[in-house]
Design a protein that fits this description.
The complex is a heterodimer. Chain A is mostly beta strands. Chain A has a single domain, classed as Ubiquitin-like (UB roll), CATH 3.10.20.30. Helix content of chain A is 11%, strand content 36%. Chain A has one helix spanning 36-47; strands at 5-12, 22-29, 34-35, 67-70, 73-76, 81-82, 87-92, 98-100, 103-104. In chain A, the strands form 3 sheets. In chain A, strands 2-1-7-4-5 form a 5-stranded mixed β-sheet, with helices on one face. Chain A has a two-stranded antiparallel sheet with strand order 3-6. Chain A has a two-stranded antiparallel sheet with strand order 8-9. In chain A, β4 (67-70) and β5 (73-76) form a beta hairpin. The longest helix of chain A has 12 residues, at 36-47. Chain B is α/β, with parallel strands linked by helices. Among the domains of chain B are: 238-354, Succinate dehydrogenase/fumarate reductase flavoprotein, catalytic domain (Flavocytochrome C3, Chain A, domain 1, Alpha-Beta Complex), CATH 3.90.700.10; 422-537, Fumarate reductase/succinate dehydrogenase flavoprotein-like, C-terminal domain (Methane Monooxygenase Hydroxylase, Chain G, domain 1, Up-down Bundle). Helices cover 35% and strands 19% of the residues of chain B. In chain B, β1 (3-13), α1 and β2 form a beta-alpha-beta unit. In chain B, α7 (316-326) crosses α8. Classes of the chains: A mainly beta, B alpha/beta. At the A-B interface, β3 and α1 of A face α4 and α8 of B.
């Protein structure tokens, strides 16, 4: 992947219309290293307004509202950086019922 | 769209410290309540962002035996530049210790001396060291309070629930209407008392150290329902928030940590000259120094100043220990998200929007000027005055939360349940349909929100003037005309863009009356600095600014400040 791009495969799923979850690929143009949370914000703004993710941030990487699975591993999206040129996979995390795309119903506090 | 209806004694809007404490107090009074949280319980609002500091005058039970509630009260009144209502400031100062003991009972961990006294840190503006130390900072406080709420059977919590308007029966507020984001359902909650605990709206500004969800819903809804709103020109900026790199822009690093008891570093200009002398000034003075440095061309490459601990005589390891002990999560976050070690390198910081001192006007029982409506915590407006002390925000959530929650419950016992007017309800439902319907020339709510944030950053900075504000206000007016062009996708579950559209509608009103209030006050005081009226004018302006909607338009007026124990001396 070129150094000014990140290729993100993101799990999409709307239980109201989709049979099962599927992956959608976004090639995002970037000019610097960014966090996963910034990447999702960028995709939502510039590429696909229908992507559901949690935009809340607490500024200290602690509230875990923004957790996702990055290449299979659960991370805090606001505190995890993605290198320019990388190809990544993002899936929902947190264990609750899947609401839509990356948003789950957090059961526990 | 289908609509579900709930009925309860008291409905509390919000999910942070004030909302939780209000709901707990209603529960203590034996009444049923519902708490409607825009996010995830225990993890939403500004409370999780807070650090260790919560003020309470423990005196002999704390660090300095000379401290008293009277002294706390006096410090608060002076820092607020004499325009905080003292009947409410008394509630804060005189119940603070009891509320902290409640928190301890719920499970919040405080640092103590070996003999059991509360460890307290000194902060600027406190006559004696008064900030109790929450070991795991605001995140833990927030989680503990939410757990206390969930343990009580008479509190029902709706999470991921966005309240977008108040419901009325004639002139009385009788509950709220909102959207359950998880299911996409419209929900009305009918209640005898409605308590606003939605926090501040610092994220109406682009450069903010608060979560993006704090956009002014509460104040705007109260305004639209006809309540008096007060002192919105006093939005507090915090001096040292990260401005670079962008991945951590808005993260707060406390200048209060620069005293010799802690990191003992310095705030400097681009050339390394110390700009803030010790003892450290209180917040409104600190931001003035920083702004003046930047304005004089002595700012850093990205328009800030340096937060520099490398100048500390203590050395890197000792400084690192301070951060690890006092703000462990913030310290680690900067490393994880940006590769920045605060103990090792200077950081570019600048003043960002931090706390709204103004808000909904309340009386000594927390009642707004519209029957049935109450407010507590940051969204209540008339007790901080023109500036806020460090450690007061969290303290207010507990003191006013408990007091106002209790009063709202007492009143609910003597009030009948009134249904919302049919026409009122239909009007609100129509709003949602408006945003979902197809348009010829459509826009996304995000674009309108971004323009609002940009306009506030540019024209509602702490230093402002008539011309800039007129420009800002006209930009906001034109954005408000664009609201009807918003079109969002028809998605049932987690329709975030629909939430943003409903948010944008409230944001334009919050922005409009903030501009109006700042234009109305023709003097400089606290966090409101008019370049065209640089002096404090006690003769004409030692009073509140009130804004109220009359015939669809904001109407501005003055109101006397309530003095109880301490009148201004001149």
């Amino acid at each position: 992947m070129a150094k000014d791009k990140i290729k993100a495969k993101i799990q999409r799923y709307d239980p109201e219309k989709d049979q099962k979850p599927y992956f959608q690929e976004y090639v995002v143009e970037i000019d610097r290293e960014l966090t996963v949370h910034e990447l999702l914000t960028k995709i939502h703004k510039n590429y696909d307004g229908t992507l559901a993710y949690r935009a809340y941030k607490c500024f200290k990487g602690m509230c875990t509202t923004c957790i996702v699975k990055l290449d299979g591993k659960t991370v805090r999206s606001c505190a995890t950086r993605v290198e320019p040129g990388s190809e990544i996979t993002i899936e929902p995390a947190g264990g609750g019922a899947l609401i839509r795309d990356l948003v789950v119903d957090f059961k526990k506090m | 769209m289908d609509m579900k209806t709930y009925t309860t004694d008291v409905v509390v809007i919000g999910g942070g410290g004030a909302a939780c404490r209000a709901a707990i107090e209603v529960s203590e009074k034996g009444l049923n309540s519902m708490m409607l949280d825009k996010g995830r319980p225990g993890r939403s609002g500004a409370t999780p962002c807070a650090l260790w500091s919560i003020q309470a005058p423990f005196g002999p039970r704390g660090r300095d035996q000379r401290d008293t509630p009277e002294q706390y009260f006096e410090d608060m009144v002076k820092a607020g530049r004499f325009i905080g209502d003292q009947n409410i400031a008394e509630i804060v100062a005189f119940t603070a210790c009891d509320r902290i003991l409640d928190m301890e009972k719920y499970g919040v961990h405080f640092k103590k001396y070996d003999d059991g006294r509360f460890f307290q840190t000194p902060m600027p503006g406190q006559t004696y060291p008064r900030s109790c130390f929450m070991i795991e900072n605001g995140q833990h406080m927030s989680t503990v309070l939410a757990k206390e709420v969930s343990r009580r059977d008479n509190i029902q919590v709706l999470k991921d629930f966005f309240v977008f308007d108040l419901l009325k029966n004639g002139d009385v507020v009788v509950g709220v209407i909102g959207m359950d984001l998880l299911t996409g359902e419209l929900v009305a909650v009918n209640a005898k008392s409605t308590v606003m605990a939605t926090g501040g709206y610092t994220s109406l500004w682009g450069f903010s150290d608060n979560p993006p969800t704090l956009t002014g819903d509460g104040v705007a809804m109260a305004y639209l329902a006809g309540a008096d709103i007060v002192d919105l020109e006093f939005n507090q900026y915090y001096g040292t928030d990260v401005i670079w790199p962008p991945s951590v822009k808005g993260a707060v690093v406390l200048y209060e940590l620069m005293i010799d008891e802690f990191a003992d570093g310095e705030i400097t200009d681009k050339d390394g000259n110390i700009i803030i002398e010790k003892p450290l000034p209180i917040r409104d003075e600190a931001i003035k120094i920083i702004f003046e440095t930047i304005k004089a061309g002595k700012g850093t490459p990205h328009g800030g100043v340096y937060f520099d601990t490398t100048l500390s005589p203590k050395g890197e390891d000792a400084v690192r220990d301070v951060f690890k002990n006092m703000t462990p999560k913030h310290y680690k976050f900067l490393i994880d998200a940006a590769g920045i070690d605060l103990a090792k390198e200077p950081l570019e910081v600048a003043p960002a929007s931090h706390y709204q001192c103004g808000g909904i006007y309340i009386n000594g029982r927390g009642q707004a000027t519209v029957e049935g409506l109450y407010a507590c915590g940051e969204c209540a407006g008339n007790f901080q005055g023109a500036n806020r002390l460090a450690g007061s925000a969290l303290c207010d959530t507990q003191t006013t939360g408990a007091h106002v929650g209790g009063c709202s419950a007492d009143d609910a016992k003597n009030r009948d349940m009134l249904p919302a007017d049919k026409s009122n309800l239909n009007e609100k439902k129509e709003l949602v349909n408006m945003f979902l319907s197809k348009k010829n020339k459509s826009t996304r709510p995000l674009f309108i929100k971004e323009e609002i944030l940009k306009t506030m950053d540019q024209h509602m900075a702490p230093f402002r003037n008539e011309k800039g504000m007129e420009k800002g206000l006209s930009l906001i007016q034109s954005l408000s005309e664009q609201l009807e062009n918003i079109q969002v996708p028809e998605i049932k579950r987690y329709n975030f863009e629909l939430e943003e559209a409903l948010e944008a509608r409230l944001m334009v009103d919050a922005a409009k009356i903030t501009f109006g209030s700042a234009m109305f006050r023709k003097e400089s005081r606290g966090h409101h600095n008019r370049e065209d009226y640089p002096d404090t004018d006690n003769k004409n302006w030692r009073c509140h600014t009130i804004v109220k909607q009359v015939d669809g338009k904001p109407q501005y007026s003055k109101r006397d400040v309530i003095y109880t124990r301490m009148k201004p001396q001149d």
